[in-house]
Design goal:
This protein has 174 residues and is mainly alpha-helical. The protein has two domains: 2-77, no CATH class; 82-173. It is 65% helix and 3% strand. It has a two-stranded antiparallel sheet with strand order 1-2. A hairpin with a 7-residue loop joins strand 1 and strand 2 (12-14). Helix 4 (82-94) runs antiparallel to helix 5. The radius of gyration is 26 Å and the shape is elongated. The model is unreliable at 1-16 and 25-33 (pLDDT under 50).
Length: 174
Amino acid sequence: MYYHFHTPICAYIPFARATTEQRRHVVAIAYNDDFLGLLRRLLSSLQVIFLVVPPIIPLVTNASSSHDAWKILAGTYASPSRGHIKQLQHRLKQFTKTPNQSITEYMQNIKIVVDELAILGKNMDQEDVNDVILNGLDQVSYKPIIDAIHGRDNPISFNELHEKLINHELSLAQ
């Protein structure tokens, strides 16, 4: 069995023939690399979660360890409770595009909630997602697009709707 020493030449020596000091060095490096790597991955994953879902920060501030934080998060978000599903459905009904919000931001916010519902086992039909998106738009400014989408025989895909709304947003800005 060979162990890697952190040297510029990347020297390998058989562990059995290593001196006691060399063995301690190898074990210390392995321990530190594993621990620091694990710590980096944990902090990185928590950082991503905190960036994506800032409301969870108050939930985990009193956790005494990362294990406790993950248990709190799992207990709060992992079980598809009826209340959680209703809350997400209510959020969907409340979405409206504000004048200072881009179409991309608006649609991303809706997509996040739709994906959360799908994770909880409540998949939405594309037509229902389109209705949520269109109902939250300014009915005067976006009337031509809304009428065109409602007049289609087949439902429009999320990406195609996004593209059409971006183009319309650009034409409104001119």
